[in-house]
Amino acid sequence: MVSDQMSINDFPVKDNASSQEKDSAKSKLSSIEEKPEKQEHTASAEPVSDEENVAPPWHFKLLVIGTVGYLIYRFIWLIFLLTGHAWNG
User: Fold this and answer.
1) In this structure, is residue 2 part of a structural domain?
2) Alpha-carbon gap, residue 34 to 29, rounded angstroms
3) Sign of dihedral through CA atoms 68, 74, 76, 78?
4) Can you give the residue range of the structural domain that contains 86?
């Protein structure tokens, strides 16, 4: 079975390193091994959220209502323009 984790014996240490350097390197590796594994985060096209139904902000709703109102106004004026009842002031 092949393990993805390095052990203390796999840690690269120079042959001519002092025993203090070897002990320091081994202590660093053992402190890394003691930490719990964290989940790896991968980039994805969809944002990850805990809540599935997130409401849009109030100013977005206001923008949509204003845009729809304006388009209705312009559509009414288009009808008046096409029927010849538009005000040409």
Assistant:
1) yes
2) 9
3) negative
4) 56-89
